[in-house]
From TrEMBL:
Compartment annotation: Mitochondrion inner membrane; Peroxisome
Family: Belongs to the NADH dehydrogenase family.
Molecular function via GO: calcium ion binding; NADH dehydrogenase activity
InterPro entries: EF-hand-dom_pair, EF_Hand_1_Ca_BS, EF_hand_dom, FAD/NAD-bd_sf, FAD/NAD-binding_dom, NDH-2
Domain of life: Eukaryota
Species annotation: Corchorus capsularis (Jute)
Protein name, entry field: Calcium-binding EF-hand
Domain named EF-hand: residues: 482-517
Transmembrane intervals: none
Keyword terms, alphabetized: Calcium, FAD, Flavoprotein, Membrane, Mitochondrion, Mitochondrion inner membrane, NAD, Oxidoreductase, Peroxisome, Transit peptide
An annotated GO cellular component: peroxisome
Catalytically driven reaction(s): a ubiquinone + NADH + H(+) = a ubiquinol + NAD(+)
Pfam families: Pyr_redox_2
Membrane topology summary: Peripheral membrane protein
Length: 734
């Protein structure tokens, strides 16, 4: 671990080993510790984003007890750039150039932030790199100046507008990250007191990445904002738009006092995400696993392990073993496909060594109702994924709709023939898209959107039919205004001389506003390979026209609205929307005086802000075996081994929020197992506690065929070490 504390460089030996000790000493698994060399005091490192490279402030002192884990390696008083110091250290350890490049970019980002801050709020940059594993995080810290005197703060408080934010996911956190909290009284409500980096959730299911590495506590984020944000760990159970308040209920058990409370707002930001969509399929809620949250991923991890444990219980027929090891994934979208690929790697690379007797009985099936998996991707990617899965032995059943799931079987209907068939399973993961949360559904009823499937906002993310309420991320969709609804007013506004016809010049004068207000025009031009908007006004033979009347204008633009696109439910969209909305909030007064948006074709003047514009950074699908497929902006497609890296850089540079990757830091580092020898004496060990483990560790197991019987397949609930890796000779475990 490299710790750069001001200009001092420290090294923590065997950091991985110390982590549990630090955790137990401090009680906080998501924070690391750093020793300040001059003051001999320890400083909490607020781990900015999930893992190993962090930007942080000096903060509270902590107990001496924790300090022994950190040993100063070298202290430098030079004024070298922080990144170069870190890079030098990395070079010493022979880190790959590619990784270096990404780290350099990230660290230089960090050092820029460092330079931009006043001395009193000195930033620390920490880079951690475990050589066998490696990891990196990028985080762009808030640019908002938080250095206000208490008098200023108090005076401001009286005028501050109250903003309530619901949710701490991509949209909510991205909104809070850049919001000028000195101008608002901000309260955040969420049942989750952490932010989760969802793109890596599938990797948590198989232990490639540890759950704690993909979460960032909300309290850390608040701390970075000078604690000017209040957080309540609660569910919002009702939005009362008429009275501008929300009713919330605490999610913490055994709360002393009233668990319900209400918060009044001037502005409400709804960023509650979506829930799984079961399409009301019987048995899904009761018998399937989901992959929406960190807890879900951890549950899947345990259940996969359980399936293997069940399969090796003595006395099972081969057929029973096969059923226990049949993993079914419903949904061939990015999440389902990534999970299938992760599971395949996990089984082939690790579990076969732990459970060699059943290694050939494992089956993974992906059920997809459409004709192809990854059908929102380019065709080339979808067929690349299907071929890869074919080679890996992952069965893909397309054109099948699941009609029920029991604890033993999954029943589906083949779309082509209408035939119904049932397949026994060991575990089902349901990953078929998203649905609206009850609190949002109820709100939609109140504001006259009850018949819609998803909450609608305008292009400025303001909820339609409701004042001062904004919705972003997966819980809402932008209802893009159709150009044909405004065609008469656009014509009128452009026809400056009221001649009843539009010249090209007149049309050109309103083009920028039209393109900004109706992004579908640009999509349409692209789809028709037209270079200029005025090309739309050409006659049917493609000849230029000097003027068009209203009918000609309408017919020229009549197909444009067909290119209106709904934005996907992705982190990219949510994060960009959060960042956009905070910018609008920060510049409210400024833009009230000088509106910056497009002209209002209905009504006068300009819109206060530019509408939200989504920048697509591409989409990515890991396919296992270090292979991935990516669709990049500009219709580029990339497939194969190198593609994995593209994804990290997209998140690092694009979202500006965070990016990281850990190469199996703790999990999936498993040892070889050998088949039990029939001639050996059999030893049965009952239990996996300290005594049994110590016995196993020292037993010369070459001489014995060892079986361990225990309800627990790990040593300690705290450390969760699987039994087999503890013993390099891998006893059989039941
Ligand atoms: C396994 C998986 C992998 C993914 N991979 C990618 C990917 O690679 N790239 C990509 O772009 N997208 C990916 N996504 C999609 C992405 O995670 C979502 O689009 C994104 O999380 C949406 O952000 P959000 O803020 O709208 O919702 P969320 O991130 O879901 O956050 C919602 C927040 O609201 C809180 N909340 C819920 N109910 C309430 C309530 N009643 N009151 C208050 N708060 C509430 C939740 O606790 C949570 O904090 C993935 C999703 C999953 C599940």
């Amino acid at each position: 671990m490299f710790v750069c504390c001001g200009t001092a460089l420290l090294t923590c030996h065997s950091f991985e080993k110390e982590v549990p000790l630090l955790e137990s000493a401090t009680g906080h698994s998501n924070q690391s510790l750093i020793l300040h060399p001059q003051k001999r005091s320890a400083t909490w490192l607020t781990r900015c984003n999930l893992a190993n490279v962090s930007i942080c402030r000096e903060g509270d002192s902590v107990t001496e007890k924790c300090c022994w884990a950190l040993q100063p390696k070298s202290c430098s008083s030079s004024t070298k750039d922080v990144s170069s110091v870190v890079i030098e250290e990395l070079n010493m350890y022979g880190v790959k150039t590619t990784l270096m490049f990404v780290i350099t970019t990230l660290v230089s980002k960090a050092s820029r932030a460092f330079n931009g801050h006043s001395a009193s709020s000195k930033l620390l940059v920490v880079g951690t790199l475990t050589l066998s594993s490696g990891g990196l995080v990028a985080y762009s810290d808030s640019q908002v100046d938080v250095s206000k005197t208490s008098a200023e703060v108090k005076e401001n408080d009286c005028k501050k507008k109250r903003v309530v934010v619901l949710g701490t996911g991509w949209a909510g956190i991205s909104f809070l990250k850049d919001l000028d909290v000195s101008a608002y009284d901000v309260k955040v409500v969420s049942p989750r007191n952490y932010f989760a980096f969802t793109p890596l959730l599938p990797s948590v299911t198989c232990g490639t990445v540890e759950a704690r590495s993909i979460v960032e506590p909300v309290r850390n984020i608040i701390k970075k904002r000078n604690r000017e944000i209040q957080f309540c760990e609660a569910d919002c159970i009702k939005i009362d738009a008429a009275n501008k308040k929300v009713l919330c209920r605490s999610v913490i058990n055994n709360l002393v006092g009233n668990e319900e409370f209400s918060l009044e707002y001037d502005d409400l930001v709804i960023a509650v995400g979506a829930q799984v969509n079961t399409f009301n399929t019987p048995g899904v809620l009761e018998n399937c696993h989901f992959l929406k949250d960190v807890e879900d991923a951890q549950k899947i991890r345990r259940s996969v392990s359980d399936c293997f444990e069940k399969a090796v219980i003595p006395g099972l027929s081969e057929e029973e073993q096969r059923i226990n090891l049949h993993f079914v994934i419903v949904g061939g979208g990015p999440t389902g496909v990534e999970f299938a690929a992760e599971l395949h790697d996990y089984v082939k690379e690790d579990l076969v060594n732990l459970y060699p007797t059943v290694k050939d009985l494992v089956k993974i099936t992906v059920i997809q109702s459409g004709d192809h998996i990854l059908n929102t991707f380019d065709e080339r990617i979808s067929s690349f994924a299907e071929q890869k899965f074919g080679r890996d032995g992952i069965e893909v059943q397309t054109g099948c709709r699941v009609i029920s799931v029991s604890d033993k079987e999954i029943t589906m209907k083949l779309k082509s023939t209408g035939e119904i068939c049932s397949v026994p399973h060991g575990l089902v993961v349901w990953s078929t898209g998203v649905g609206t949360r009850p609190v949002v559904k109820d709100f939609m009823e109140q504001i006259g959107q009850g018949k819609r499937r998803i909450l609608a906002t305008n292009e400025w993310l303001k909820v339609k039919g409701c004042e001062d309420v904004y919705a972003l991320g997966d819980c809402a969709t932008i209802d893009q205004r159709k150009i044909m609804e405004d065609i008469d007013t656009i014509f009128k506004a452009a026809d400056k001389d009221n001649s009843g016809t539009l010249t090209i010049k007149e049309f050109q004068d309103v083009i920028d506003d039209v393109l900004e207000r109706y992004p579908q025009v640009e999509h349409y031009l692209k789809s028709k390979h037209l270079r200029d908007v005025t090309d739309l006004l050409k006659d049917p033979e493609g000849n230029d026209r000097s003027e068009v009347d209203i009918e000609g204008f309408k017919s020229a633009l009549s197909h444009v609205d067909s290119q209106t696109k709904n934005l996907p439910a992705t982190a990219q969209v949510a994060a960009q929307q959060g960042a956009y909305l905070s910018k609008c909030f920060n510049r409210r007064q400024q833009c009230e005086a000088n509106p910056e948006g497009p002209r209002r074709f209905r009504g006068s003047g300009r819109h206060q802000f530019r509408p939200f514009e989504y920048k697509h950074l591409g989409q990515f699908a890991p396919l296992g075996g270090e292979q991935a497929a990516a669709e990049l902006p500009g219709d580029w497609v990339s497939m194969g081994h190198s593609t994995q890296w593209l994804w990290y850089s997209v998140y690092a540079s694009g979202s500006g929020l965070l990016a990281f990757y850990e190469f199996r830091p703790f999990g999936r580092v498993l040892t070889d197992a050998s088949q039990p020898d029939r001639k050996k004496k059999k030893v049965v060990v009952v239990g996996t506690g300290w005594a049994a483990t110590s016995f196993l560790k020292n037993l010369k197991s070459e001489s014995y065929e060892v079986r361990v019987v225990s309800p627990r397949n790990y040593l300690s609930s705290r450390l969760c070490y699987p039994v087999s890796p503890m013993d390099s000779r891998s006893p059989q475990h039941c």
